[in-house]
Amino acid sequence: MKIFISAETREKDSLMDPRFGRCQVFIVYDTETKQFTSVGNPGYTSGGGAGIQASNFLIDQKADILITGHLGPNAQEVLKNSKIKVYTSVPKSISEILKDYLENKLVEITN
Amino acid sequence: MNIVVLSGKGGTGKTLASTNLAKYMNANYIDGDVEEPNGFIFLKPIIKEMIEVIVKIPSIDKDKCKKCFKCAEFCRFNALAKTNDKVLVFDKLCHSCEGCKIVCEFGAIEYIDKKVGIIEKGKSNDIKCSRGLLNIGEPMAVPVIKELLKNLDEEINIIDSSPGTSCNVVNILEHADIAILVTEPTNFGLHDLDRAVKLIRKFNIPFGVVINRVTEKENIISKYCIENKIEILMQIDYDREIAIMYSKGELIINKEKYLNIFKELSINIKEKLL
Fold this sequence. Notes:
heterodimer; B: alpha/beta; Rossmann fold; Alpha-Beta Plaits; two-stranded antiparallel ribbon; 11 strands; elongated
């Protein structure tokens, strides 16, 4: 399972970026291999519709889980029509957020 | 002959300058600030004609769509999005380029009309007035501006622009023969004037500056204009009486002392810009 977390930098101990569409990078954690990778968000430089572009990118990347701060209405519309589950958190370090997720402490965004 | 009145910074007096100038020169007045047009408050025209502004937005035929998502990959404005089982259309992001129909191999895309605003045309005594009104909630003003500026009269048209240096202003400037930049002697006024000057230089048209709310004739804007060899067409005093008249929706040229400064502006336009 691939967990995508919107992040400020590519470092493993980066802070989560509460913005989804305009975050610079996603830190990706693979629950099977327990490996961290990072990937740039194409929405970061988008002229408009950043949330839509970032959502489509996650679908292409076959993400299973997204953890971020807020979703705009457009991104929410796209992701609700995908299989990706979205959880919200306050900005913390990536390791703290993963810990919260594994302990079922994060709230899922549903609509 | 189109005279565009623009500013860079908002709230510097574009509408004050353009409504009074139109009245003084007996020229047509066109309010191109379609997100918040306010020139009609002062000219009070009687509206004789209303035209709807319509754009084309894609509609996906679910039976014909094979979910290849080429349209969503093609759309650079992200107006089309792919999901697991369908293409989603975000009409507010669509620029009506109609490219998605070209890339669709299954003929699944048709276009439907969407109303985004209206054009109002009327007369204030002898002055022909028109304005665009963007519908509330619509983010894109350009289609309304393009419709408003279609088939302009040969006479003198004073076009009141929106502030800034965005697509809205660029679209208005494409129609400009000369331009008047209205600003104020503040740091914000100077900063945004400089941006507007950089934009206007790309159009290679004559332009000059009107300085509003002036307390000293030599100020940061006049200094900037001299350094950059830009004509100063008029300076308007920082005057409580103007604010009072403006807040009542009155044209200031109804008072003789202000009529004289607009006379000076009109002479300066003719002598320095034409």
